[in-house]
Amino acid sequence: MELKISNNTIIKPFSVGWDPADGIMDDPDNHIERCLSKLTDMFIDPGAAEAYLKEKGDVLLYEVYEKAIPQRDGEIQFCSSITHPGRIGEEYFMTKGHFHARRDTAELYYCLRGRGYMLMEKEDGEYELGEMYPGRSVYVPAFYAHRSINTGDEPLISLAVYPGDAGHDYGSIETSGFKHVVVERNGKPVAIENPRYGKME
Ligand SMILES: [Fe+2]
C-alpha cells in the first residue's frame, strides 16, 4: 500500500522521534504491517508456510513506519524498516521486496539493530548480498530489486532513505519472485537459486 499525498503539498521543516531499539516512529503517517498469511506464496515452501501459520498463528513478518512526503523529484522519502526474526523451514523471515517504480533510483539503508542481509538483484539475475548489522550501511544502486532478510534472533531494524519520486513496484516480485533466496544450511545463511522463480503464484 502506497501512502498517497498530493504532489503539490508544501512540506514545512519537521523532526520526528525514531527509536533505534524497536524501530517505532513517533507520530507516523503510515504504519505498514505484513503478516505471514499474506505472504505464504513468497516463500520457497508455501506448504511449510501454511503449516507454520496453523501452528503459530499469523505472525508479523515485517513493519514499516513512515512520514507522508510528496512523491516528487527533489524530496527524500524515509522510513524505519523492521523485519522480525524467524524461519519458514530453512528460509529466513524477509520482506516481500520491490523494485522502484522509477528504476533509476537508489536507496540507502542504515542498520541499527539485528543481523541480516539486503538481497539486491537486477532483472537479469545479477545479485549481491549486503551485510546488515548495527552501524553498517548498504547502498542499493538503481535498477536493483531489494529485500531485507533477518538471519538473526532479534528484529532487524534499519532506516531507509530514497528519492521522493522513486515509488514501489511489487508486481514482478509477486509473480516471479527473486531469482535468489537466502536459506540456512549447516547453521549458516547461504544464497541459493530460487526453485520457484517464475512461478510464485
Ligand atoms: Fe526501496
The tally of domains stands at 1
CATH-defined architecture: Sandwich
Would you tell me the structural class of the helices and strands? Answer: mainly beta
- The proportion of strand residues reads 35-45%
Instruction: Write down the CATH class.
Output: Mainly Beta
Spans where pLDDT lies below 50 across 5 or more residues: none
Query: What does the average pLDDT come to?
Result: 95
Give the oligomer, counting copies of the same chain as homo and different chains as hetero: single chain
Helix content: under 10%
What topology emerges from the helices and strands here?
Elements: E1 30-35, H1 46-56, E2 60-66, E3 76-83, E4 87-88, E5 91-92, E6 107-113, E7 116-121, E8 127-132, E9 137-140, E10 145-150, E11 156-163, H2 171-176, E12 180-185, E13 188-193
The protein binds fe (ii) ion.
Fe (ii) ion binds at residues 98, 100, 107, 146, 162.
Can you offer a commentary on this structure?
Strands 1-2-3-11-6-9 form a six-stranded antiparallel sheet, with no helix packed on it. The radius of gyration is 16 Å and the shape is globular. It is built from two helices and 13 strands. It has 201 residues and is mainly beta. The structure holds fe (ii) ion.
